[in-house]
Amino acid sequence: MNTVARLLAVSVLALTVLAACGNSGEVGQIKSVVEKSDHEQEDAFAAHDPTLMQDTQTARNFVYMVRTNDILQQEGAVGIRLLKLEWGTIKVDSSIVAEAETWETWEQTDEDGNSYQSRDRNIYKLLKVGTSWKIDEVSYPDKPDQPAPSDLITPPPSSQ
Predict the structure, then answer these.
(1) pLDDT single digits (tens) 58-68
(2) Which of 14, 85, 112, 127 is most exposed, with minimal Cβ within 10 Å?
């Protein structure tokens, strides 16, 4: 009986370690997609080519990110740059849903060459699409004046 108990304990420990490794791999993928998305936003803004952001976003959040860059441009920004990315909690809620918290310091440059920095907390909601994590929504909980993603997305006209 002692041998059976030890084998059971070793098996449970091995499964726990494997589960932690699997979750660790998911966390690494989530961090990678968020960081890539930030750099794609910089590139898309500079090139005036929003399609550069498509591979890290769901269709819904892609529309939001395009609108965000449009607003930045309308407000007079000629450049944006991620200066610092700090990680908070990352939760993998299921095999297809996750949430990541970051603090991001961005620099925005206007046409007169003035630069402005802001550091904001972001909450990313991600979905697993196929084998890749995609950003489905970004919110800024510490900025009550920030429009919700749904406020920036214009629904398609109804076909009634």
Answers:
(1) 999 999 999 99
(2) 112
Domain assignments of the chain as residue spans, ordered by start: 2-151
139 to 50, 79, 99, 123: CA distances (angstroms): 20, 22, 11, 5
Distance of CA 47 to the CA centre of its chain: 21
Task: Calculate the alpha carbon distances from 27 to 88, 104, 130, 131 in Å.
Answer: 12, 18, 16, 14
**This prediction's pTM:** 0.77
Tell how far CA 60 is from the center of its chain.
Answer: 13
